[in-house]
Amino acid sequence: MSAFTLPEPSLDPLLNLISQYRADTRSNKIDLGVGVYRDDNGHTPVLAAVKTAEARLYESQDSKSYLGLTGDSDFVDVLGNLLFQSPTGRSVAGAQTPGGSGALRLAAELYKTAYPDNTLWVGLPTWPNHLPLVESVGIKTATYPYFSREKQALLFDSMLEHLSNASAGDAVLLHGCCHNPTGADLSSTQWSELATLLADKELIPIVDLAYHGLGDGLLQDLNGTRTVIQHCPQTLVATSCSKNFGLYRDRVGAVYMVADNKALAIRAQAYFGHVARRIYSMPPDHGAAVVKMILTDSNLRQEWQTELGTMVQRLNTLRKAIAAAGASIGLEFVSEQKGMFSLLPLSPEQVDSLIGDHAVYLAGDGRINIAGCQPPHLEHFIESLKSVDFHF
Ligand SMILES: Cc1ncc(COP(=O)(O)O)c(C=O)c1O
User: Fold this and answer.
1) Could you tell me the pTM of the whole model?
2) Which of 75, 230, 259, 318 satisfies CB 3.0 to 4.6 Å to 265 for a cystine?
3) Pocket of ligand 1 (CB under 6 A)
């Protein structure tokens, strides 16, 4: 009889951290590990606009029949309008996906179909799932330096130097805004310079937009993505509503190809459905229906924008508070970064000691979730960093 043997899967270390945190009985424990937004009570709330939309949906929805492989085209259009606003000279293809992860998977599959022998370039450091996700599609990958954790600085020149070695048809994965894990985004000038290089070298940008609206605002956060779209004949964009609508577990996202010709957009649209059919068939509907309702109802949309604004304001206030309280150990850089994360230059031993000796939970690479640092915990956090001899 054949034995059903399974190799040990490599587990996401953050998932381990969650159970370790839950089991910890110390009253001063702080969770800066998991990448979800939290309010002042450490809670990840359902937005009021979402609650209202869900109630209306409950009353009005009269069927749960299949939607179609690319989801609800109205949802895809409404979200696409928020992102692109009819880019001149471009045609947009899009599909609803299970979260930003599903969108990245479809983008990667589409890219691999068009360029089976090319390489996808990923900037480091990055979200830990980026490389496994694209490599599982069978795409060859290469890396380029993006940010120095030790210097807390972008490595822009080095990034351009590496990408200038890429071949025509290679893809470049970019974080649209609120870079995870560093919080360090390119400036407008740098985006323009990068977009020019991408166009000159005939590289295909794949923009991951997982934190739209959590940096400088809904419009400003699209600056880089729109610059790339203007310069490049084809751009793939993977977006997520997990963070900006707080719909993490409902799995809402969309993938788009913004192309310079309609025929390609039509073909890409068909491919999105074709690929989805072979993986999960159709995306879940509920969260996307909620997002569509919010974006198409002016009152709900306003309410959502206000709630999103409150989240951003809280993140920025916390960033300033951490920078001020940690000025003596060099934490001022935290206030200059954007979105939910910063990446502290801590050794693995310092991280172990923060968790084991001080109940300060953070990712092994030194990433902290700013939203997890509630004001009453700030002093304990800074004192703990001092205790492990952190100094930038
Ligand atoms: C950079 C980045 N991309 C994509 C995702 C995936 O988001 P989703 O939960 O919508 O799949 C995340 C989630 O943390 C992320 O940080």
Assistant:
1) 0.96
2) 259
3) 35, 99-101, 127, 175, 180, 208, 210, 240, 242, 253
